[in-house]
Amino acid sequence: MVYTRKNQSALTRSEKKRFVDAVLELKRKGIYDEFVRIHIKYYVSDGERGLRVAHMTPSFLPWHRQFLLEFERALQEVDPSVTVPYWDWTVDRSTSSSLWADDFLGGNGRGGDRQVTSGAFAYREGRWRIEETVTDDPFLVRDLGHPSGPISLPTKAQLAEATREKAFDVSPWNSMSASGFRNKLEGWGRGDGNSQYQNHNRVHRWVGGQMLGGGSNNDPVFWLHHAMIDRVWSQWQMAHPGVLYQPAKPPAASHSQYRRIVSRDQPMPPWDIKPSQLESHSKIYRYA
Fold first, then answer.
1. Residue 138 contacts residue 123 (beta carbons within 8 Å)
2. Fold of 3-287
3. How high is the mean pLDDT of the chain?
4. Burial category of 1 from C-beta neighbours within 10 Å (exposed 0-12, middle 13-18, buried 19 and up)
5. What per-residue confidence (pLDDT) applies to 216?
6. What residues are paired with 116 via a beta bridge?
C-alpha cells in the first residue's frame, strides 16, 4: 500500500505526537544512534580518498532516499501510522514556525552554549542524549539563523536555480560540478562566507549545531529536511521524464573519480541497492 508523506505544517496534533514518540522509542532502543553512525561513516568529502556515496557525489540523492526509507521503516516498526513529514523551508522560514514548537521538534538553542531546552528532544527531559557525535556536546544544539553570521533559508527563486537544470549531474561528479541538478540542489557554491552555501547546504547551515557535520541527523529536523530534498527530486523527475541518473557507466581509470563514485547500476554501501533501483518511489510513497 502506498503511503503519504505530508507537509509538517499540515500535521495534526496526534500525528506530531506519534512521530515524536516513535523517534524517541528508536532512541531508547539504540536504533536511532545506529542511523547517526551510518551517516557519520559515509560523510566523506571529495577531498578525501576512497568511495563517496552520501555527499559531493551523484548518489547524494538516491543514497539519502534509501536512508530515509530505512529510517521510515524503523519508525513504522514502532508505529505503522508514522511517516516522515517534510519541511518546506521556502515557505516555513521563521524561527517561530510550528516546526519548532514544544509539541513537535522543540525550539532554538539558548544563549551561550546554544543548548535546546524546550520540547521532547531537550537534554533536560532525559530522553535525548547525543551519543554519536563529532563534537563533545551531550545535548542537542541549534543556532537558528546563525546570528553571529546571519544566513537566510533558501527562497523559491534560489531553489528554482537548481530545478531549472536539465541534466541530473555532470563531470567531474563532485562539489566542483558547475552545472547539473544534483550539485545545484546539494548546494556547493562558490565565494566566501555564507554565499558558498545554497539550497540543501544552506538549510544545514541555518539550523546550525549538530546539523553542521557528519552527525547532522542527531537533530531530528534532518529527516524533515531530507524529505523535502527528496520531494524536490521527485518533482524534478516528473518535470524531466526520461532523464536518468548520471553517470550511466563508471568513470574510466584515467578519470579523477575512478572508483570514487557509483554509476547508475553499481550498489551503494551500506546497502546492496543501486541508484537505478531508486529512481521511482511511486509504489512505496507519495507526497501530499
1. yes
2. di-copper center containing domain from catechol oxidase (1.10.1280)
3. 96
4. exposed
5. 97
6. 109
pLDDT number for residue 194: 81
For the chain, the structural domain boundaries read 3-287
Q: How confident is the model at residue 136 (pLDDT cuts 50, 70, 90)?
A: confident
CA angle in degrees (0–180, nearest 5) for 9-11-13: 120
Q: Within 10 A of 67 (CB to CB), how many other CB atoms are there?
A: 23
Secondary structure, 3-state, 73-131: HHHHHHCCCCCCCECCCCCCCCCCCHHHCCCCCCCCECCCCCEECCCCCCHHHCCCCCC
Residue 40, C-alpha cell as written in the block: 557519520
pTM: 0.97
Average pLDDT over residues 108-120: 96
With a CB cutoff of 8 Å and minimum separation 6, the contacts of 112 are none
Amino acid at site 42: Y
Letter string b/e over residues 184-194, b meaning 16 or more CB atoms within 10 A of that residue's CB: bbbbbbeeeeb
| Residue 45 three-state SS | coil
C-alpha span between 70 and 218 (Å, rounded) = 16
* Helix-then-strand count for the chain, H and E: 7, 2
